[in-house]
Amino acid sequence: MQQWAASALRAAKYGKGPDWVACIVRPAQASIPARTLPRGNMGFDLEDTIALLSSTPRSLHALLRDLPQAWTHANEGPKTWSPFDIVGHLIQGERTDWMPRARMILEHGENRAFDPFDRLAQERESHGKSLPELLDQFAQLRSENLHALRAMKLQPEDFDRRGRHPALGIVTLSQLLATWAIHDLTHLHQLSRVMGYQYREAVGPWSAYLGVLHCQGHGS
Amino acid sequence: MQQWAASALRAAKYGKGPDWVACIVRPAQASIPARTLPRGNMGFDLEDTIALLSSTPRSLHALLRDLPQAWTHANEGPKTWSPFDIVGHLIQGERTDWMPRARMILEHGENRAFDPFDRLAQERESHGKSLPELLDQFAQLRSENLHALRAMKLQPEDFDRRGRHPALGIVTLSQLLATWAIHDLTHLHQLSRVMGYQYREAVGPWSAYLGVLHCQGHGS
Question: Residues 85 to 114 of B: which have CB under 8 A from any A CB?
């Protein structure tokens, strides 16, 4: 790392940098491993979950629809995803993952493991389509799924109903629905990183202060 | 880390997990330090930059305006920021950072260092206001600033004009404008992490697969 970057990050870490640097740093928690962090402070709430799931399609629409392809179709290198790819992945989740799994929990409980995700279907689905078409399709499918979710008229006692994940084992309906919402946020997180990556050289020395340019994807 | 989490992440890393796990992992680059990654593939482009800067207010509006405060006013613990705080910070950037610094480069070049950020002003600014008020204020200020940026009628030769950052030293006008855009993405990245944090327990075992829950903020 160049000297200016190292000294700026060190100064920021100890609260001695320019004030605006601190916006990037989480002072108390920056070095604590994820598994030792305190509990998130929200319990599962169906309406809060639906509110977040409802906001994602319009947020992606607002963010991406009018951007040039330099932002929306660029990725981070071989075998990585562009914003266009991410929207295609979200569409496949609407088709084959979340609501089918919710129905499987209600109908089969722990007796039948969820079906795995079909990634080839995602590639077929997106092929030849424009990003606005994918955004519209995602919004339509999400709307239909949330309508179907509301039609289930779930009661609090349903949230603990159990299903079987092929790798994770026993999971509950509320965990599935919470994961549906946080999966949206994971891909919003990824999307901001992928777009930031395109300007990692253009920002020059400021790269030291821009947290999104230091994200490695948290895959390991 | 529990065994199922460790084994799932290990399987994902080597491409052997359930297919849908791989969406979280960047296969080729997950373990490469940021400073050795290849160059981003976009050079600075004024219109691309303005397009991204234009999309941020409407994206935040779409994402946040109708969410309950359980999502928008919760943070990650003491001295960390909620989505509400982040929007207040973006407003301060519009008031005191980006365009004032661009004007300083054009008027004073390297002769005068940029003024530091005033964080107290941000807290004063947000106090007593609602999130929709802050979102509207951010959109208004961003619109005015982009109008002023266009009125500068910058030419390619202007992009290399130099200014002086109080900590980073010499920077160029294009680096400042690129940073303005990537600073938006850094806070979108942060915002998705802060919201995800609220459900880190609610998702149960799926937390192992949700990259956003493993983000530490990249501050160090």
Answer: 89, 97
Q: Which of B195, B212, B206, B112 is nearest to A97 (CA)?
A: B206
| DSSP string computed for B89-109 | HHHHHHHHTHHHHHHHHHHHG
- Between vectors from CA A73 to CA A67 and to CA A77, what angle results, nearest 5°? 135
pTM: 0.83
In sign, the C-alpha dihedral spanning B205, B208, B210, B215 is positive
Residues of chain B positioned with their CB less than 8 A from the CB of A98: none
Tell me, yes or no, if A119 comes closer than 8 A to chain B by beta carbon.
Answer: yes
Task: Note whether B139 contacts A: Cβ–Cβ < 8 A.
Answer: no
Looking at CA atoms only, how far is residue A208 from chain B in angstroms?
9
Q: Give the pair of three-digit tokens for residue A169.
A: 């084992």
Q: What is the pLDDT of residues B161-180, one digit of tens each?
A: 999 999 999 999 999 999 99
Nearest by CB to residue B199, choosing from A24, A118, A182, is A182
Q: Is residue A195 within 8 Å of residue A83, measured between CB atoms?
A: yes
**Quick check: ipTM above 0.90?**
no
The pLDDT, as a whole number, for residue A115 is 86
Three-point CA angle A59, B210, A66, nearest 5°: 20
Q: Do B217 and A29 touch (CB under 8 A)?
A: yes
pLDDT tens by residue, B88-99: 999 999 999 999
